[in-house]
Amino acid sequence: MRPQRVLVIDFGGQYAHLIARRCRELGVYSEIVPFTTPLEEAFSGCYETLGIILSGGPRSVDDPGAPRLSAEGLSRVPVPVLGICYGHQLIARAFGGEVEHGSLMEYGRTSVRIVERDVLFMDVPEQFVAWMSHADSVVRVPPGFNVLALTERGAVAAMRHAERPVYGVQFHPEVRHTQMGSAILKRFLADVCGFRCDWRPMDRVEELSREIAETVPPDEHVVCAVSGGVDSVTTAVLLSRTLGGRLHCIFVDHGLMRKGEPEQVVSTLRRMGIINLVFVRAADRFLSRLKGVKDPEEKRRIIGEEFARVFEEEAAKIPKARWLAQGTIYPDRIESGLAGSGSALIKTHHNVAGLPAGLRLRLVEPLRDLYKDEVREVARSLGIPEEIASRHPFPGPGLAVRIIGEVTEEKLRVCREANAIVEEEFKRAGVYDKVWQAFAVVTDSTWTGVMGDVRAEGYVVIVRAVESEDGMTADWYRPDMELIDRISKRIVNEVGNVTMVAYATTPKPPSTIEPC
Ligand code: XMP
């Protein structure tokens, strides 16, 4: 039986990943491809593509140079198609409907009324709330299409071709604010496309493991950089199942780890049956190269470069090594501009940019198609301790990106201790698993304090906690003030050299999650 997938064609919309994730949550493996991908490619390869979803996008269908689809092209697609927002307008335009700019704009929660009860809307009430974000609207459906639902202002909220399974919806079923949005998507996937809806992240991992077993010849070895995060530990454990003693893990302690992390990682990996583990204490090398460096991108570059060097030296000691395993996951590849529709480079991600080029090793990335929460699920099914499986993401360059300006030993101490307090208190309050990340940042500013009647200069520490589905967008977490009070008091009293604790209240965008 060939594995099934739904293809999400990305027209540059901010929700393309959300669509892909929702499909996976509904048990259908999804992949995102840029709109420039020839449609024939969708039907080649090992997957059986049973449906296509056209994402939203920032353009107007009639803008010069805006991505287009032809009715003829769409008619050749042998599987059901669902256009969302821009995708909906594209379908309308392709088949000769009318799309108007600016006359019926709707943003946020909008009421939608069902006009014809199609299979897509079996589970929703006649009137339901849907999330909209559109300046353009379909005001007349193309010949041969039926209106299925209307928005409050009279735009076409949903339509379908009378004879073929071609659908368009103006609203975003993938956004949680759309009432029964998942049920609408489920109907499309299960009833219209005919998916089995039984996919689990582990399925993809097993496929990739089989691929690895077939690709790595029996006399060649693999080196794996482990950082202690759930991604790299899962990669290592996964590979050790297939490769056993042919896997060599290298853990570089760059001195920028969280409190107690190096020891914890090493003991976990040993317990998980990793036989070959090299632990490199390299803190001095990294810290001396970071001396005097203030620029965030420069800090990232140096850490990436030094990491590559240390790693290269260690890997060179493993003569049969021909492969490099990395815990790269789907969003890493997207934000580094290596996948998706060529999204702009936001920050150099260490585990992608820091590839030791000189090693000439071939790359194995068994988690490359998974989102973070899917990796956690895989980790649990491999028996990786909960402490690592549910641990918040931690950037490759470590605490260096949580220190604004120069990384000094003192700022590093403050940062490490303050981060440990934030983690501890979030866990104690039972909200650690509710947030994507919670951490402390040491700024380059000081605040005049009075401590025991004496004037004292200390650092300003910012506590940041965010909620996010995949780190691509994030909102700041609204904490209980008692929790913030406890964290603030503990940082000032226990860490020392801190005279002000602030809480960050800016979402991503515009701010990134980590400060630098
Ligand atoms: P930003 O800060 O870019 O973060 O909004 C998005 C997510 O990625 C993590 N992050 C990194 N992870 N290497 C990593 O492996 C990096 O260089 C890096 N920079 C940021 C960040 O913690 C957040 O979860």
Automatic annotation (TrEMBL):
SUPFAM superfamilies: Adenine nucleotide alpha hydrolases-like, Class I glutamine amidotransferase-like. InterPro entries: Class_I_gatase-like, GATASE, GMP_synth_C, GMP_synth_GATase, GMP_synthase, GMPS_ATP_PPase_dom, Rossmann-like_a/b/a_fold. The keyword Methyltransferase does not apply. GO terms for molecular function: ATP binding; GMP synthase activity. This is GMP synthase [glutamine-hydrolyzing]. Keywords: ATP-binding, Glutamine amidotransferase, GMP biosynthesis, Ligase, Nucleotide-binding, Purine biosynthesis. Its EC number is 6.3.5.2. Residues 199-391 form the GMPS ATP-PPase domain. PANTHER family: GMP SYNTHASE [GLUTAMINE-HYDROLYZING], GMP SYNTHASE-RELATED. GO terms for cellular component: cytosol. The gene is guaA. It is an enzyme of class 6 (ligase). Catalyzes the synthesis of GMP from XMP. ATP binds at S227, G228, G229, V230, D231, S232, V233. It comes from Candidatus Terraquivivens tikiterensis. It catalyses: XMP + L-glutamine + ATP + H2O = GMP + L-glutamate + AMP + diphosphate + 2 H(+). The active site is at C85, H172, E174. The lineage of its organism: Archaea, Nitrososphaerota, Candidatus Wolframiiraptoraceae, Candidatus Terraquivivens. Pathway: Purine metabolism; GMP biosynthesis; GMP from XMP (L-Gln route): step 1/1.
